[in-house]
Amino acid sequence: MIYGFIGTGNMGRTLIEAFIRSGKLKPSELIISNRTKSKAEALAKSYPGLRLASDNRETVRNSDVFFLCIKPGEFRNVLDEIRDAVREDQIAVSITSPVMVADLEAWLSARIAKIIPSIANAACAGNSLFIPGSRLTRENRDHLRDLFGAISQPLMVEEVHTRVASDLACCAPAFMAHLMEKLADAAVEETGLPRETALSLVTRMAEGLGRLLTEGGFTLETLQERVAVPGGITREGLNLLQKDVGPVFNELIRLTHAKYEDDIEKVQNSLFPKMKK
Ligand SMILES: NC(=O)C1=CN([C@@H]2O[C@H](COP(=O)(O)OP(=O)(O)OC[C@H]3O[C@@H](n4cnc5c(N)ncnc54)[C@H](O)[C@@H]3O)[C@@H](O)[C@H]2O)C=CC1
Ligand SMILES: O=C(O)[C@@H]1CCC=N1
What we know:
Blueprint: E1 3-6, H1 10-21, E2 30-33, H2 37-46, E3 51-52, H3 56-61, E4 65-68, H4 75-82, E5 91-94, H5 101-107, E6 111-116, E7 127-132, H6 138-149, E8 153-156, H7 162-191, H8 195-214, H9 220-227, H10 233-244, H11 246-271
Helix pairs in contact: 7-8
Binding site for NADPH: 56
Domain Pyrroline-5-carboxylate reductase catalytic N-terminal: 4-97
Binding site for NADP(+): 6-11
């Protein structure tokens, strides 16, 4: 079975490396293409056996399953280019949330799946979000679940919940990293603690927190209870967070959804320009 990757930027590369490192795919099972050739060349050099295609059509022609690891605004160009090369028996996987499964089915004869990975998959952890298209057979679904099972916990989601699920599974690593950095910076500003020490402390804390939640039998709720002993210092901090942080996250979810709706509209206008008002 040959797996093609169109787009070897940040996420295309992350997926390729995760599949190879997990032992799920061998470099010789992969064929790749990227607009900026040097990026794909560097990847092919790092993994001998990995095949570099001269264009996206060659990637498609030579693969059984191919991934579209490109940004929303890049879909029209790529779909125009590959459309005639795509076969009905192929599986096409898009990793891009605002491109609708039905729209890809209208453009390509292949069996479509939308699977949104997370940067956490680079550590063979976290979820991948699986939105199957209507033409995927049961066998195709099992195949994709098995593939992504090597680097993540695949979770079936309704397309209507793609955005919010992606906020939690895929965007939140960045959100949480930002909060941790802010916490460390505040500690530095308020006390003069060396920044290096502050960053190391929060990083190790996150490592322990992850383990407690995944292997240590804690839930988010029990963890807060265990640390915030009545009358203790943590309680003071939690009281403040309860009051001030909640509304920020409501706003954040509203913002990601507004941007998502905007992206969907732009993608649809580019894929089906006649429908433009
Ligand atoms: N960064 C993340 O954690 C996640 C990103 N995604 C989605 O993955 C998609 C890609 O994101 P990134 O990899 O971060 O973007 P990126 O900009 O790093 O990579 C996109 C790649 O596509 C290539 N490209 C553009 N047009 C092309 C064409 N016509 N033919 C071949 N290659 C072409 C670019 O050269 C670039 O290497 C986005 O839609 C993003 O929302 C999904 C889940 C997680
Ligand atoms: O659009 C998305 O949902 C993904 C998650 C992180 C970046 N892109």
